[in-house]
Structure formats: C-alpha cells, structure tokens
Design brief:
Blueprint (H helix, E strand, L loop, with lengths): L2 H12 L4 H13 L1 H6 L1 H6 L2 H5 L4 E10 L5 E12 L5 E7 L5 H17 L5 E7 L8 H15 L8 E4 L6 H15 L19 H18 L9 E4 L4 H12 L3 E6 L3 E4 L6 H10 L5 H6 L4 E4 L11 E3 L9 H9 L4 E3 L8 H9 L3 E3 L1 H4 L1 H16 L5 H25 L6 H19 L4
Parallel strand pairs: 3-4, 3-5, 6-7, 6-10, 10-11, 11-12
Antiparallel strand pairs: 1-2, 2-4, 7-8, 8-9
The chain binds NADPH dihydro-nicotinamide-adenine-dinucleotide phosphate (NDP) and (2Z)-2-iminopentanedioic acid.
Length: about 450
C-alpha cells in the first residue's frame, strides 16, 4: 500500500466519528500523492504524515455561565493546537451550536496549510464552543466570553497560541475575551487578533478575508486575460467575510446579486446595497430577510442551498462548510458559472470540488482564497510586537502582495507536479512542503 493510502486508512479508522476531519484530510493527502511518492523514503523515515494528521494537543473544557434570568448554562469548548512547526498556533475561535471536536480538527488541519501559504511564521490551531451568540444580550455574551477565557488563558499567549475570530466571534467577542485575559494575567499583549482599533487591533483586519478573496480571484482571472469587472457574482453568507468580499467585488466593478444566512437568501438584480446589509448585520444584528423588506426590487427566498441556483459568472461561498454539494455545483455550472473562489472554509464537498476541477472552472480553494484574514492577523501580531500601528494603505498593500504571492506559489506547485491550473493540488503541496521541511529539521517532536 502506498504511504498516503496507509495513513489515510488509519485516519479513517481512528476518527470515524469525525466526518469533516476525514474529508479535509482526504482532500489534502490525495493531492499530496505526487510529492509524497517522490520523497517517500524521507517522509516515511520521519513519520511526517502520521504526525501531520494528529493534533499536537487538544484542550477540552466546560464553560459555565449565567443568563439574564439567572439560569446557569454549561457549554463545551475546545482549543485544537494542531501544528507549531513554523510558528505559534494561530487560528480563529468559532461560537456556533454545530461546533464539535471533529469540526474544530478539520478547521485546525486546514489552518496549518493555509498559514504556511501566507509565508508568515504562524502554526495552525482552531478553537471554539457550541455556544450560540444569536439572540443573547451583550451581557450574556460577555459572561460567556469571560468564563471561556478563564480556562483558555492558561493555554495561550503572544508567542504560544494566538486565537482570533471565526463564525460567531467578531469584534465584540474579541473585546470581552481580551479584557478577561488582561485581567487574569495582568499582561497587555497581542494574545488575540481582530482586536478593536483602540486597543491594539490592525487597520484592515476586519476587511482582510473578504478583500483577500477578491484580490486572489482577480489575480486568477488576470492570468486568463480576464477580470472581475462586469462579472455577475453570487455570494452566500452575510457575515464578516461575505460583507467585505461584496465590498471589494463591487469596487472592482462586479455586480453582486445575492447574500444569505442560515434561513434563506436575498436576490437583488440591481446589485446588493451594502450599506443596507451592514446596517442589518453589523448594527442591528438582524436577519438577511429584512433586506427584501427595505430594498425595492429585492426578493427573499427560504432555504440556503437555493442561492446556488441563481445564474452567475462567479460564485463566492462565504458562509460555512459543505454548503455546496454536487447538485449545487452542477446547477452553478449549468447556469454558466465559470469561477469559484472560496471565502468559507471547505464550503464545497469533495464531490463538488472534484466537479469544478473536472469542468475546468477557475477554482480557488479555501486555504488559498481565504488566507488574507489570517495573514493580516499575523501582521497585527507584528505591529503589536513593535508597538506601532501601520496605516490602512500599508496593511492593504501588504495583503495584496501576500495574495498575489499565494497565487504564484499555488500555481507554480500545481505546474511543477504536472497539474497545471489545479489550485487544490497546488495549494496543498505548496502549504505542505514548508511545514514538512520544518518538522524534519526540528527532529521527532
Ligand atoms: P460570521 O459569523 O460573521 O458570518 C457567518 C455567516 O455564515 C452568517 O451569515 C451565517 O448565517 C452564515 N452561516 C453560518 N453557519 C451557517 C450554516 N450552518 N448554514 C448556513 N449559513 C451559515 O462568520 P465569518 O464571516 O467570519 O465566517 C464565514 C466563513 O468564513 C466561515 O467558514 C469561516 O470559517 C470562514 N473564514 C473566516 C475568516 C475570518 O477572518 N472571519 C477567515 C477565513 C475564513 P446565520 O447568521 O444565519 O448563522
Ligand atoms: O479561518 C481562518 O483563517 C480564520 N478564521 C482567521 C484566523 C485568524 O487567526 O485570523
């Protein structure tokens, strides 16, 4: 049996209750076949793949908190410290009822390769809880965040593990988490990223994931003699990533016609009015349905998968994992979609992703496409270390440079191993090679 097949079989046997983790590992290991076969002796000798698929450490803890009625609740929380070969663990925190260990392991695993692609010194980690911030008061969210940090603080630090936001964790949550970390440890340090601008946050971090997604999309299209300008785009989600992807796509001349949440989606053929979306989501914490009540000509439709049936040139999934299945992928292609860039982590099932490749779409997978967020997080860490803050323009320029470099590395790795234009293979190989070399250099650990 080949080395890849051996490790894959063992991962499937040992993690049978974690389908998302198995999915992420399958995609990565399948795309590493060429590079692993070419270096099999070396990688086997140092058990690189066995070590790569096993988190260095998983911390699991309970989070008790009191709601506004005085009732006590207990949530389950984790921090998965996946791989520290190239830097301190780095990756977001997700607060969502669907969170479990398998989901955080898939996210932490993906993060290892994504962070490597940024070329910045950050290892991979992810954490979160099955807490649902929806419908909670600010005080309840604060109580939860303080309790969460009362355990997490002992495991993290500016040079060991630096969490940030993800689904359900934005500026408000990061503020409460930072305040509690500082209060317990007495340290004013860059232990979290995505902080507010008044206490050590970086300009352009809020925008970074969405902007980065459009920068790399533009780069991919430019190499085909095309551009974002004039494209009709479908976006899913209406959170942080979706909003700033929409903003940059519109700035570059695209017409974005949809946004969604976990209840349904809106279609506005005149182009999404982002000021209305920002007011609904960022100010009022409302639902995307309200957009159709406020904007003449816009319509609302129940259910989230219908958004992929709206004809478009470009699809930008920016909500959650496995939101595009094979059926949705077929619908997109049937309706003329020629480019897909993934803002969410693993938004396409393995079947959908293979279908995009088979049909020759311009397809940029998540770990390359959404790396702009964590890249600017690493720039926030640099600014915190030197106790300076850079201008919006400086951070944005660096982000552009990083995304162009990710495109180049991904595209070159794909071509080097005979899969020109297959950015899934390219991103996995380019991300893997650096981590593997660092793991070998540091001995068995
Ligand atoms: P937000 O919490 O700001 O927004 C999430 C959006 O996705 C909401 O519109 C939400 O709708 C929708 N959503 C969440 N879960 C589901 C679900 N199960 N089904 C349908 N829709 C859902 O999160 P972000 O924008 O930060 O994150 C979106 C994606 O981008 C995630 O996959 C995340 O991992 C990824 N990502 C985020 C980065 C960042 O910097 N924030 C960086 C890189 C990737 P609802 O309100 O109904 O839940
Ligand atoms: O998935 C991701 O890359 C994030 N949620 C951002 C992580 C970070 O540390 O900024």
């Amino acid at each position: 049996m080949s080395y890849v097949d051996e490790v894959l079989a063992s991962v499937k046997a040992k993690n049978a209750s974690e389908p998302e983790f198995i999915q992420a590992v399958t995609e990565v290991l399948e795309s590493l076949r060429a590079v692993v076969d070419a270096n099999e002796e070396k990688y086997r000798k140092y058990a690189v793949l066995e070590r790569l698929v096993e988190p260095e450490r998983i911390i699991s803890f309970r989070v008790p908190w009191v709601d506004d009625k005085g009732e006590v609740h207990v949530n389950r929380a984790y921090r998965v410290e996946f791989n520290s070969a190239i830097g301190p663990y780095k990756g977001g925190l997700r607060f969502h009822p669907s969170v479990n260990q398998g989901i955080l392991k898939f996210l932490g695993f993906e993060q290892v390769f994504k962070n490597s692609l940024t070329s910045l010194p950050i290892g991979g980690g992810k954490g979160g809880s099955d807490f649902d911030p929806k419908g909670k008061s600010d005080r309840e969210v604060m109580a939860f965040c303080q309790s969460f940090m009362t355990e997490l603080y002992r495991h993290i630090g500016k040079d060991t593990d630096v969490p940030a936001g993800d689904i359900g964790v934005g500026g408000r949550e990061i503020g409460y988490l930072f305040g509690q970390y500082k209060r317990i440890t007495g340290l004013y340090e860059g232990v979290l990223t995505g902080k507010g601008l008044t206490y050590g946050g970086s300009l352009a971090r809020t925008e970074a994931t969405g902007y980065g997604l459009i920068y790399i999309l533009e780069e991919m299209l430019r190499h085909k003699g095309d551009s974002v300008k004039g494209k009709k785009a479908v976006i899913s989600g209406s959170g942080n990533v979706a909003i700033y992807a929409c903003q940059k796509a519109q700035e570059l001349g695209a017409r974005v016609i949809t946004m969604s949440d976990s209840n349904g989606y809106v279609v506005d053929e005149n182009g999404i009015d982002l000021a209305v979306v920002k007011d609904i989501k960022e100010v009022k914490r409302g639902r995307i349905k309200e957009y159709a009540d406020r904007v003449p000509g816009a319509s609302y439709h129940e259910g989230c998968s219908g958004v992929w049936g709206v004809p478009c040139d470009v699809a930008l999934p920016c909500a959650t994992q496995n939101e595009i299945d094979l059926e949705s992928a077929k619908k997109l292609v049937e309706n003329g979609c020629t480019s897909v860039a993934e803002g969410a982590n693993m938004p396409s099932t393995l079947e959908a992703s293979n279908y995009f490749l088979e049909k020759g779409l311009n397809y940029m997978p998540a770990k390359a496409a959404n790396a702009g967020g964590v890249a600017v997080s690493a720039l926030e860490m640099s600014q915190n270390s030197e106790r300076l803050s850079w201008s919006f323009e400086e951070v944005d320029e660096r982000l552009k440079g990083i995304m162009a470099n990710i495109y180049r590395m991904t595209s070159e790795a794909a071509s080097k191993y005979g899969h020109e234009g297959n950015f899934v293979i390219g991103a996995n190989i380019a991300g893997f090679e650096k981590v593997a070399e660092a793991m070998i250099a540091q001995g068995i650990c």
